[in-house]
Amino acid sequence: MKIYTKTGDAGQTGLFSGTRITKYDLRLHAYGTLDELNSHLGLLRDQIPMDWEEVRAELLQVQSDLFALGSHMANDLPEMVERLPHVDFSWIERLEAAIDRMELELEPMRNFLLPGGHVLVSQCHVVRTVARRAERWVVQLHDHQAEDSLQLPLPTMAYLNRLSDYAFVLSRWIGKRIDAPEIPWIAKP
């Protein structure tokens, strides 16, 4: 199988059905941003110490989840939905459980925090902000498809929202584990 097909050279790409759409279509913005988010998660996971097995496993699962979400966005065939990975509210519960577990070790926040303090903390914030952008594209796609018979799985938007929360809490948890300073935002008059 060749990596290049030349079918996208004119600014179009294909959905599962073979339908050609422009590379600036809302679907492409949505699942392209999920792909970008997945890459940032991979970079974060690669920097996490090997003995933090639970976090590394969580990040790997999130990467798999994002591929599943993207497959639904690339699908335009109602009969194909049953063959795609099932997207479930338990995915959100899994993220919430991880957030709750990490927050048990953290002091309450007293200020807004600026990204930084350590490369791992900063990478968590990159993940957080790309997750927020992906969420915005997915919401726009969802609203655009409101009249369509083929909707995105119901938990999709909530999952991305919770993922950005997870990345924020992970940034604080990592910062505490490696003794990186939290940088409070102090409003200047």
Walk me through this protein's architecture.
The model has no long low-confidence stretch (mean pLDDT 91). This protein has one domain: Cobalamin adenosyltransferase-like (Hypothetical Protein Ta1238, Chain: A, Up-down Bundle). Helix 4 (119-144) runs antiparallel to helix 5. It contains five helices and four strands. The longest helix has 26 residues, at 119-144. The radius of gyration is 18 Å and the shape is elongated. It has helices spanning 26-47, 53-73, 89-103, 119-144, 156-177; strands at residues 12-14, 20-22, 113-114, 183-184. Strands 1-2 form a two-stranded antiparallel sheet. It has 189 residues and is mainly alpha-helical.
Summarize the structure.
With 189 residues, this protein is mainly alpha-helical. It is 56% helix and 5% strand.
What descriptors fit this protein?
single chain; 189 residues; mainly alpha; Hypothetical Protein Ta1238, Chain: A; two-stranded antiparallel ribbon
Topology:
Blueprint: E1 12-14, E2 20-22, H1 26-47, H2 53-73, H3 89-103, E3 113-114, H4 119-144, H5 156-177, E4 183-184
Antiparallel strand pairs: 1-2, 3-4
Overall 3D form: elongated
Q: Which fold name corresponds to the CATH topology?
A: Hypothetical Protein Ta1238, Chain: A
Described by strand count, sense and barrel closure, the largest sheet is: 2 strands, antiparallel
- Which percent band covers the strand fraction? 5-15%
Q: Secondary-structure element order, as H and E?
A: EEHHHEHHE
**Helix percentage:** 55-70%
CATH uppermost class: Mainly Alpha
Mean pLDDT metric? 91
Number of helices: 5
Number of DSSP strand runs:
4
The name of the CATH architecture is: Up-down Bundle
Radius of gyration: 18 Å
User: Any idea what the CATH superfamily is called?
Assistant: Cobalamin adenosyltransferase-like
What topology, given as strand order, has the largest sheet?
1-2
Number of domains: 1
Give the termini separation. 61 Å
Structural class: mainly alpha
Spans of at least 5 consecutive residues with low confidence: none
